[in-house]
What does this fold into?
Amino acid sequence: MKRIKVKFEEKYKMKELYNSKDYKKIYQEMLKSFSDSNCRTSKEHVLFFPQVGKNYFSAKTKILFMGVATNKWGEECFKPNDLKKDNFINALVECAIDYSKPEKTGECSMKWISDNWDIGYQMNKKPFWRIIKGATDKIFQNKKYFHENIAWSQFYKIAPYAGGNPNGKIAELQNGGDWSKSKKNRAFSYELLEKEIEILKPDYTFLIVGKNWKHDYFDYPEYGYQYKPIKSKKYIRATLEINNYASSILITSRPDEIFKGKKEKDFVDEIVQTIKLKICTKLLK
It folds into this structure.
């Protein structure tokens, strides 16, 4: 009976993520802002929607891993002018949601990771996923299908199709730009992150965004965001408080910034130690 209840709760929570009108509305308003900006770019872009492992909501520790951006993602790419077409924005959001869902009922939406671990996309060659697998292997007893226990998102939901992270106006349209100069820009990336934490309720959120990240974007108490550096850790660089959410939000280095081998192992061990010893709150001291 307990197992049935867990499955029901997982299914309900998944639907909450896919069907949340407030969450979709932020996506739609972000794309509308992108369309209205008259951003002069002929590049094609993709839209990302989070993926959630099939056992995430029943995991003993719920972990959300977040990168910066994803390229060549989804079934639809678009240019700013496309967003001006009738109903294109709504259709694009629904398409992104559908792409994030499992291909078959009962499957994990991130099954593609284990299917392509050492063939196809060769995910084992991507430092971001090696770090996540290394950490979750030690936390969960499901090494081959480690992705079933986690949730995955990206800070920038709009990214160039061909490659690279958003920069310039494309980034500012999502992160709010320089808030110290203009407080009129909406910080869509933060609004979406806040909504994801509200729905997914992770125990830990790891923002794997890099040591040279513009941390000043995080430190705005008037918006409910407080960035606090950590000096006692090498790879976990800061904590982030968002409107007093209970989730422990940690900003880390990016795996591709460090050498493979021992340093990568040290990065994994630091994540595992933080979770297993539940020392996140002590990091602020």
Notes: Residues 2-19 form the longest helix (18 residues). Confidence is low (pLDDT under 50) at residues 1-6, 280-285. The chain has eight helices and ten strands. The chain has one domain: 2-284.
